[in-house]
Write a structure and sequence with these properties.
Elements: H1 10-27, H2 30-41, E1 51-52, E2 58-59, H3 70-85, H4 94-111, E3 112-113, E4 116-117, H5 119-122, H6 130-145, H7 151-164, E5 176-180, E6 185-189, E7 194-198, E8 224-228, E9 250-252, E10 273-277, E11 282-290, E12 293-301, E13 306-315, E14 321-323, H8 334-339
Antiparallel strand pairs: 1-2, 3-4, 5-6, 6-7, 7-8, 9-14, 10-11, 11-12, 12-13
Helix pairs in contact: 1-2, 1-3, 3-4, 3-6, 4-6, 4-7, 6-7
Length: about 350
């Protein structure tokens, strides 16, 4: 612990400052405790290059949406510190507490459906039962945040918990349409189904490959489109996927290995990526210019359907292009099957 130092940015800084806080407690060093506490709470802002953004998405490793990994760790650790410091001289001030609460209620609440985290929010950590584990972590975070929150905030946090846990509820009370403009992510929610679209642009990196994690995720931000009713439609589908036919994307129909190039050099070379909404219905559009593929893609969301349009789809390759509609696990309701 003597080697613990404060540094880096975003969730990485929170981790390091947490180590220093632990060291300071062991040493009974009050001034260092306060220094570590300040370093942790300094990251509660929407104005930094990494971390919470003004649309309540979370970015790390540059302009990359990281709801499911760095952002989730940030949320769970900040909720821990919120609860730990509550009622003491180290407690978060109302503004800091409000920002963390809004990250959950105006950010994470959109990407959790019936106790499952949306695949488009998971990032690269596609491990066994990941949508369940990661969603459950947000539930524990909501509970921890309540200790230092106002009565109105506590009510909203409890509503989030009631809407998602236990899983499998017939309807969701949280509905609407949101475009996370700083992270190129669209979410549409109705009482009985939810849809999402993940994109990338020359402003936003779509995916990453770190420590051989996400070796096949190259196409996961090329307009990936998922539709949920139960919430578990894509649970543990990843070992069986054709990673060139991710739901909603346009890619090569090829048996060749999926590319493993990541970073700025492999981003979508287009700025025409965005969305508009009145809060209930919405439209999302993307010009794809990546990996030798060019396409114009549009999604129109209403409470009755998602309309998907594609035009000017072309490539400089002799390989065939294919647009996938959906790729999910096949499940039969045995009760309904027996009744039929």
């Amino acid at each position: 612990m003597q080697e613990a130092r404060i540094g880096m940015t975003g969730q990485n800084k929170v981790w390091l400052a947490g180590n220093v806080l632990m060291r300071a407690l062991l040493e009974e060093n009050e001034s260092l405790i306060k220094e570590a506490r300040e370093a942790i709470l300094e990251e509660i802002t929407t104005e930094a290059k990494e971390g919470i953004k003004s649309d309540w998405s979370f970015r790390q490793h540059g302009p990359m949406q990281q709801f499911g990994n760095y952002g989730l760790t940030y949320l769970t650790e900040m909720s821990f510190y919120s609860n730990l410091f509550a009622g003491t001289s180290l407690a978060m001030n109302p503004r800091q507490q409000s920002i963390i609460n809004n990250l959950l209620l105006q950010g994470y609440r959109w990407v959790i459906w019936k106790g499952h985290m949306d695949i488009n929010a998971l990032g690269r950590q596609l491990f066994h039962n990941a949508p369940l584990h990661k969603a459950l972590s947000t539930g524990f975070a909501a509970r921890s945040l309540s200790a230092n929150s106002t009565a109105a905030e506590q009510e909203s946090l409890q509503a989030y918990i009631d809407d998602n846990f236990p899983t499998g509820k017939p309807e969701s009370a949280f509905t609407g349409h949101k475009y996370f403009w700083e992270s190129d992510l669209t979410i549409h929610r109705t009482p009985t189904w939810m849809a999402s679209v993940k994109m990338a642009s020359n402003r936003v990196l779509g995916t990453e490959l770190v420590n051989e994690d996400n070796l096949k995720g190259y196409y996961m931000a090329d307009g990936a489109t998922y539709i949920y009713r139960r919430g578990d439609e894509y649970l543990n589908v990843f070992p069986f996927w054709d990673w060139r036919k991710i739901s909603g994307i346009t890619s090569y129909n090829s048996a060749e290995p999926v590319p493993t190039q990541y970073g700025p050099q492999s981003r979508n070379q287009s700025s025409f990526v965005g969305g508009m909404t009145d809060g209930t219905t919405g439209i999302t559009a993307m010009e794809l210019n990546r990996d030798g593929i060019q396409a114009r893609k549009t999604w129109v969301f209403t409470d009755k359907f998602v309309l998907c349009l594609g035009s000017d789809i072309q490539t400089d390759s002799c390989l065939q292009l294919i647009t996938s509609v959906d790729q999910r696990l096949k499940k039969l309701n045995l009760v309904e099957l027996a009744g039929n």
